[in-house]
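Figure 3 (text version): structure tokens given as input.
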């Protein structure tokens, strides 16, 4: 894949990661700022950095994780992976083993999707609306 205006598509005619000034909630469309695309351009593995740029662009303070959960659901759906979400928002994505791992014991990777939203008093960043802008240093 390569970066373009459409970074990730959940289904035909349903972009979920597009460079635009419009964000919709019915059909998840998230703005990925040009700074984030530029910051990860050429980094490997490319797929990992594509998702990092997208995830960095989704505001998600604690108790406001729905947009990032929808992104994860869309990624799982595009790859044909089963996922489940409980009433409080916990999500599990299942990926079957392949090759020598087909019959192996399951492996569980755990993480959280909210972000710590600390900032200096003089900072104007709004963690409920603003993306994190990436910078390669």
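Below: residues designed for each position.
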């Amino acid at each position: 894949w390569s970066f373009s205006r459409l970074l990730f598509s959940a289904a035909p005619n349903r972009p979920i990661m597009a460079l635009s000034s419009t964000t919709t909630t019915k059909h998840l469309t998230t703005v990925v700022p040009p700074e984030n695309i530029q910051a990860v351009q050429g980094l490997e593995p490319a797929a990992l950095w594509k998702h990092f740029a997208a995830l960095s662009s989704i505001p998600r303070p604690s108790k406001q994780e729905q947009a990032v959960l929808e992104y994860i659901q869309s990624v799982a759906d595009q790859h044909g992976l089963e996922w489940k979400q409980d009433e409080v928002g916990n999500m599990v994505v299942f990926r079957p083993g392949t090759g020598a791992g087909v019959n192996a014991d399951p492996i569980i990777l755990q993480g959280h999707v909210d972000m710590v939203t600390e900032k200096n008093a003089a900072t104007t960043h709004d963690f409920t609306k603003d993306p994190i802008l990436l910078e390669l240093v």
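The first helix runs from residue 34 to 40.
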